[in-house]
Structure formats: C-alpha cells, structure tokens
Write a structure and sequence with these properties.
The complex is a heterodimer of chains A (about 525) and B (about 210).
Chain A: H1 28-36, H2 39-61, H3 66-82, H4 84-97, E1 100-105, H5 108-122, E2 126-129, H6 133-138, H7 140-146, E3 150-153, H8 156-163, H9 180-194, H10 206-223, E4 226-229, E5 233-235, E6 240-245, H11 249-255, E7 259-265, E8 269-270, H12 276-287, E9 295-300, E10 310-316, H13 320-324, H14 340-344, H15 346-351, H16 362-373, H17 390-394, H18 401-419, H19 425-438, H20 442-460, E11 465-466, H21 474-477, E12 482-483, H22 490-498
Helix pairs in contact in A: 3-12, 9-10, 16-18
Chain B: H1 3-14, H2 39-51, E1 55-59, H3 64-75, E2 80-82, E3 99-101, H4 108-112, E4 116-119, E5 123-125, E6 130-133, E7 150-156, E8 160-161, H5 164-171, E9 182-185, E10 190-191, E11 199-200, E12 207-213
Parallel strand pairs in B: 1-12, 2-3, 2-4, 4-7, 5-8, 7-12
Antiparallel strand pairs in B: 5-6, 6-9, 10-11
The chains are: A alpha/beta (about 525), B alpha/beta (about 210).
Chain lengths: ~525, ~210
Amino acid sequence: MSTYLGLPTMRPPVAPHGVGALSGDRPFPAAAKEALANDQLRRNLGAATRTIRTKRAKVVDEVPDWAQLRAAGAAIKDDVLARLDTYLIQLEEQVVARGGVVHWARDAAEANRIVTELVQATGAHDVVKVKSMATQEIGLNEALAEAGISAWETDLAELIVQLADDKPSHILVPAIHRNRSEIREIFLREMGRAGLAADPGLTDDPKALAEAARRHLRRKFLDAEVAISGANFAIAETGTLAVVESEGNGRMCLTLPRVLITVMGVEKLLPTWRDLEVFLQLLPRSSTGERMNPYTSMWTGVTPGDGPQEFHLVLLDNGRTATLADPRGRSALRCIRCSACLNVCPVYERTGGHAYGSVYPGPIGAVLSPQLTGVEYNATLPFASSLCGACYDVCPVAIDIPSMLVHLRSEVVDAKRAAHRLPQPEAVAMGAVGWVMRGRRRWPLALRAMKLVRPLGKLIGRGGRISVAPPPLSAWTAARDLPLPPPQSFRERWARENRLSGPQRQSGPPRESGKEE
Amino acid sequence: MTAREEILGRIRAALADRPQPAPVERNYRASGESPIEDAPLLELLVDRLIDYKATVHRATPETAAEVIAAALAERGANRIVVPVGFPAPLLAAIDPSSIIRDEPPLTAAQLDVTDGVLTTSTVAIAETGTIVLDAGPGQGRRALSLVPDYHLCVVMAADVVRGVPEGITRLAPENTSTTLPLTWISGPSATSDIELQRVEGVHGPRTLVVVLIT
C-alpha cells in the first residue's frame, strides 16, 4: 500500500566512509586469521568472556521475571523506533526548557565539527572524556586533535588503550588484550607525557596500577573545564540523561567541569521516566554481570550551582536512519550496548574485536556496522558467524541477530550482483547448482552421478569425511569438512525400500512391504 | 534545510512502512509490593551492601548521632563536609570544629583535602544494594559526595524499597519537586579492567559507610 506524495522517498544516507571507525581495511577472514595467531589475546579474551558470561548467567537466573523484563525492553525500544521523530522532538523541548542546548548532527563529520566548535568557544585545549562508543564511532578524538585539542580518556581501560596508542578490543573491557605487566610498562612510559607521571617504583599488582591511574586522572578531573560524554539513556518525557558506569570517572566528568558536551545516538531514547525501571535492571545484569553497577548518574539540563553550568546535547544520526529504514534490520537499533552477545559468541571469543574492523564488533557489530555504513563497506561481517544463536538468547532486548545475519547476507549478495556487470564465479557456481537442483530428472541424475565420485572421495578422505579437497572445493574444505558421497542417494533408497512401482513412484505414503495389497 | 529538519525528514522517510509495534506489557514485578520497614527487607539491603564492601552500622533515632560520631572517630576523620540542610540532631555527637559547611560552596580543591563527607539519602533499593542521592537538602550538590575519599551515608528504613521499579516510582519527577540530579550508588567504585581482577576504589569515595536508622 503506498501513497503518492509527488516526491520519491529516498533511503536515508549511510555513515560517510572514511570518517570515524565503523569499518576496517581488511575482510574479516584475513583479520581473524591474524588475530587467531595471537595466543595472549586468545587467552585473555577467553578468560574474560568466560568469567563475564558466568557472572551474567548467575545474576540473570536470580531474577524471576527476566523474560518479562526482556520482552518489555524490546517492546519499549520498538516503540521508540516507531515514533523516533516524536520522541526526539519531545526530548529536545525538555532539555532546552531546563537550560540545555541541543544540536543535531547528520553524520560523523558534522558531529565532530559541532563538538570542536563548542570546545573552541570555551578556549580550552584539553577535555576529559567519559567512555563513549558514539564518540569512538565518529573518530572524535582524532578530529579534536587536528584542532589542537587533547581529549583525555578517563576510563581505566580506555586510558590504557590511549596511552598505548592502541585500539579497543572489546566494548566493555577494551584493554582485555593487555596483561598487567604490559599495563605497568605503558603507565611508566607514557603517563608523564600525558600529565602526572607514574611512580618509578610502580609494580604490576592490579591495585597498584589502579592507584596509579587514580592519581594521574585525579589531577585532570580537578582541573578540567570541559568534559565530553556519551549517554546510556535519554528520557523524552523529562529530558533526563543517564550514564551507567563503574569507576567514578563518569561522575567526575559529569560533575566537576563547567561545560559538558554529550554525544548520543538518536536511538538511545526511552519514552518515559518509568521505562528506566526496566532498563536499569536489564543493563547492569547483562553487561558486567552485577545486580547494579557502582555508579549511575542522571541529570536534566543545567542545575544552578551544581555541576556543569553549560550543557550541550549532540544528537547523532550517522547511518542510524538508514538502519531504521529496513524493517528487517531496524531492531538492531534496540541495542543498549551491554556486550552480552560478545561474551557468548564463539567467534568473537577467539578473534577479539580488532578483527571486525569496527568499534562495534561481535554479533551486534556484525548486524549494526554493515547497516550503518552500507553493506559494501562491511561485506564480510554478516558472514563472521556460525549462526549458533547464543547472542539472541542473551540479548536483553531480544534482537534476533541470526535472522538478521541471514537477511544481511542476502543483501551482500544482491549488492555484489548490482556492483558487477558480469556475474562473479560464486554467483555462476550457485546458478549452476540451482539449475541442476531445479530439474526433476537432473537432480536425481546428479545424485546418482555422485556415487561414481565415491571411490575418489574415499581416496582423499578419511573416516567418512573429506577434510582436504582440490580446488575449487578447497575453498570450502579450508574451514569445513565435506561428507563422503553415500553409496546411494536417499531417493534411490526410498524407492527401493518402499518398492513403489508404476504411477505411484512419485507420490503416496510408504506402505509396509508385504502387508496390504 | 537544517540538520534537525533533515534528520526528522529521514526518520519519517525511514518509517514509511508505518510500523505498529505491540503495546508494552508491564507484567514484570512492579511497584507497591514490598511492605515498608520490613525486617527481612532491611536485612537484604544490609547483606547486599556488605557484599559490595560497604560498612554498615545499624542505629535507632536515639543512637544515630553516637553511631555516626563513632564511625567518624574510627576513621580518624577530623574535617567532615556536611551539606546544607543535613539534620542537626544527627550531628549532636560530633565535635563542631570538625564540621565544614558548604556555605559558601567549597571548591574541588578544598573538597580534595577534607577527610570525608556526611549525607542523607532519598531512597535505597534492597535487591541491588543501591542508595540514591538527589542533591537535595542533607545530600548536597554532587561534588560533595564525589571528591572526598570517605562517604558516610544515612539511610532511613522508611526509604528502603525492594526493587528497582519501586525505586524509580519514588524518584519519579511527579514525586520530587524538580528533576534533580540523581546519583545511584551501589558500593564503592570498582574496576575489573586489569585482567578482570576486581579492584575497589578508583575514583569517587573509596570507603562507603552506611548508617541504617530503624
């Protein structure tokens, strides 16, 4: 059903390529192969994901109404997406009514420009940051650096990653690929250049390392004039924003500086205050496996005499409206960035986040990143999955990631077909197989012909399977085993065992041999 | 066209299929189910707080002032920040010279060299061991409960609820006079970023003491 409006409705644009960190420069299989060779990463990641998912399972089991909360969470987010424009307008009204300023950013470049100009207006050359995936997504730190502004990360793990000039490997524990002695070295080497230097006698005991970070960052917090944060939730009804955290650096950044700039994806809304009762249960238990995280801060606009006296909210699109436009893909925008899916994914557990090339890795990254950037820039991500479905089981907002992966795979194939004037080898092969399978006589013939290949299969295979095949099948057997062709096809066996003859050959129920008739 | 208009236009175009999601069913455990000042409920709160490595002292309205003074003495705290509107009776056993008022407002640097802060609270959630401050009288502007290294928080039994939905209801904007800044505290700060070993006390007060008045 459609209404002629006189104008073509165009699909909203995706995130601009080359700005920010939504896609990598290598396809997943290549990047994954390299990551798999990194033993320390695999060990740390394996231990981390195992620990967190065990904790998560325990605290979720405690909650007798988890299924109802999950369903409510999904429904609330679907309502947000279905009326996103209305809620955004309401949020803006409420924030402005309480002394905040709201900015709208169509894409990463515009968001970077807005934030840079806001910081420049204060005259500050240093800003402190609370961890924000949205600001990583748009490459904000790099954009600020180009304008001569230093953005200091204050989350311990982000601090480690920043001092080491590294990239985060996990949404929640970004420095998990580093062990304690590496962290000690990084602190000793780099803290002095960034601010207060570490004590030369620093040990690698986690308590000592945390203390070193505390001292180094405390100086920054007490002196900072400008802070940049993200937001976990924004309540349209009241204009309230919420930041969920563990270490206290969020509280520091949201309270002490004079100016606060919050960058938030447009989908992070909740309609009413009451909806927090669902999400403040879903998020802590799903992300860190705790009943509640140590600190959650909520604020609305500006409170005179308490906290920042200037507050800016930057609403970010950057491909979210493009994602919204696909009815089969838009539920990816329900995501509350808990990372529960990362911690259960057998693929992510082995490769880590870098292999995905995007700040959103793992199962959610495999469905969100390609939609934000357009499938051609993250074409291998929907295939980076065994479709086991563990992610769907743990997702607190019930995003059906496996179905979405299959849908996006077909989008990738369609895009490839559209991009090439001549069909690619894979498409030709699939077309040929399809032609054979469609034929009523062709297919049974092909199955009988496979029998002839069986002796060869037994030569190169072992124990009923073929693990190494010559090209082009080698592309398949590089990662999977092929079964040996059977001595007879199922159709042949069926026909023989049921002794159907004449016109009944093609149809009819099986009859017990020797009974009736 | 402004960015705002363009984004709103994109959203409307994206929703051309007019999705009608199912209404939200709120059949999870909701508000209004826990009796007030129920002993097991308070035990649950205490249990959770201790689990988070907070120290808990029980007191009655008569003993509260002494309990608070004793806790501060145990800490060796001589310069305590007390927010505007903190109940005077609770200060009765403390040496007045060790009390620092927030009038005129203390700077972050001044807060940094105090020994601790004393606050009341607005609601406590037993199931999750959470205490919520609303920056109102007795609780102080947010910097007060953030910068000092020691935080002694007074929780009244009547303010203890069972679960998050009840806490949210108590805090709802129609139940408080304005949308005040809220701080939800569930134990002292912690990180598990270094080899996943939980280390207590990064930023924010590293010692949290709760005095529960029944």
